[in-house]
Design brief:
alpha+beta, Type Iii Antifreeze Protein Isoform Hplc 12, seven-stranded antiparallel β-sheet, 3 helices, rod-shaped
Length: about 240
């Protein structure tokens, strides 16, 4: 072997040693990164915006892998933690789903009963009433005598919605007083007294309307604001 060949062999050996050293360095960096990141676990993030009180669907969520050490204890890791539940607050696309963001579907409490009434699609809060929402129920009554004023009353404050049915057409032969051609059955969880108020209003009120209460707002309208007449408004000039 001449000197040129020896130099070639030496260069090859040096190159191989450098490559091995570089490979070892990469392995060390990867190993160090893995040791710092730790193992990964399954989590879920929102694939789309979900309004408050809307039931979560598999299409609304995306399964992801997240380092366990970076995941909060409240993160949802199993499908059973969100299946059949509703969004407790408005959820934004890309947010990590956590247990305090969802709630069980509303159920009856002791002393409550379910009562469903048909609400005009146009005069209700169209498309915004969902299970778990709370609403104030308004009813407008015709005067008993020609000299009496028409009255609008909040007959139930903070009524909890249990279920929202499918929009369907009214039978005009039976619901001639309805303002719209379509309505939706809405089921409430109410005590006996409020259930009677709602049943009475559906039968005898000219119109029944719903006003959506903001999430987290538990303040009921004062008694002085629950009854309205145009004559009373004219007397006070619109002031409380």
């Amino acid at each position: 072997m001449n000197s040129r060949q020896r130099r070639g062999v030496v260069l090859l050996v040096v190159s191989a040693l450098c490559a091995a050293a570089a490979f070892a360095g990469v392995l060390a960096v990867v190993s160090d990164a893995r040791s710092q990141v730790g193992s990964k676990v399954t989590a879920y993030e929102l694939a789309a915006d979900v309004p408050a009180y809307t039931e979560l669907d598999a299409h609304d969520l995306r399964r992801i892998s997240v380092p366990k050490r970076w995941l909060p204890d409240t993160a949802v890791r199993e499908p059973g933690q969100f299946q059949g539940k509703i969004a407790a607050v408005p959820l934004k696309k890309g947010s990590l789903l956590q247990s305090d963001m969802v709630a069980a579907r509303p159920e009856l409490k002791p002393g409550q009963m379910e009562i469903a009434i048909m609400i005009d699609a146009e005069t209700g809060v169209a498309g915004k009433i969902t299970p778990g929402a709370r609403v104030n129920i308004f009813a407008t009554f015709a005067p008993r005598k020609d000299t009496d004023p028409e009255i609008s009353k909040i007959i139930v404050a903070g009524a909890q919605v249990i279920d929202v049915g499918v929009i369907k057409a009214f039978d005009k032969s039976q619901d001639a007083q309805r303002l719209s051609a379509q309505g939706v059955p809405i089921t409430f969880a109410l005590d006996t007294e409020n259930a009677q108020r709602v049943a009475f209003a559906e039968s005898f009120a000219r119109h029944v309307r719903l006003a959506l209460v903001a999430p987290g707002d538990t303040a009921a309208p004062p008694a002085s604001d629950r009854t309205y007449t145009l004559a009373g408004d004219l007397v006070t000039g619109g002031r409380p």
